[in-house]
Amino acid sequence: MDRTLIISIVFLMGCQTKSQRELAAEDAAKQLYTPQAEFPMEIVPIQKTYVEWQQRLSRLEFSVLRNAGTERAFSGDLWDHKGDGIYCCRGCGLALFDSKTKYVSGTGWPSFYKPIKVNYIEEETDYKLGYARTEVHCARCEGHLGHVFRDGPEPTGLRYCMNSVSLDFVNRGKNYNFTLE
User: What is the pLDDT along the chain (181 residues), one digit of tens a residue?
Assistant: First the structure.
């Protein structure tokens, strides 16, 4: 499959409603053959204009991913999701968290104790609530994902508290190419 077709599939996934996006992801996964999901060490950043992001994302996705908003607790589709697979950035498709590192934190947001690769996320301290919090965003598209706290389980002691709307889920074994833009 050539790169143009792959990019077209991913672009269409970003322009459709959630259920259509999930179907498109599954269709794309069936067309792409990758014996094992490869997670490259280096991330090539992608840049889009404000308008391009608005066209690609829903209003809530844009609010969270591009303006560091937060969805209401217990309102997202992934906070209690129990599938086996990979959680990737809804903005650019980068694989971020493995379901094997997801746990029930009781917060109402999907929580993980470690990312797939530490360089796939970036952290920055924010003071939006009057105290220091560590914001987490995607290293490829700079989309806001949530925050990380130091009250998680072993082995890391970290709680990556992510917004469901910032993530997409791909079932393990779907042979999805996570390096697409």
Answer: 444 444 444 444 444 445 555 554 544 443 333 333 467 777 889 989 999 999 999 999 999 999 999 999 999 999 999 999 999 999 999 999 999 999 999 999 999 999 999 999 999 997 878 888 899 999 999 999 999 999 999 999 999 999 999 999 999 876 655 544 4
pTM for the full model?
0.75
Order of strands across the sheet that contains 121-126: 102-103, 111-112, 159-162, 144-149, 133-138, 121-126
* Residue with the two structure tokens 């694989």: 95
The DSSP output letter for 26 is H
What is the residue extent of each domain of the chain?
3-171
Catalytic residues: 161
Q: Cα separation of 87 and 116, whole Å?
A: 9
Element (H or E) spanning 115, and its range?
Answer: none
Provide the H-helix boundaries in the chain: 3-15, 18-31, 50-56, 59-67
Question: In CATH, what is the architecture of 3-171?
Answer: Beta Complex (2.170)
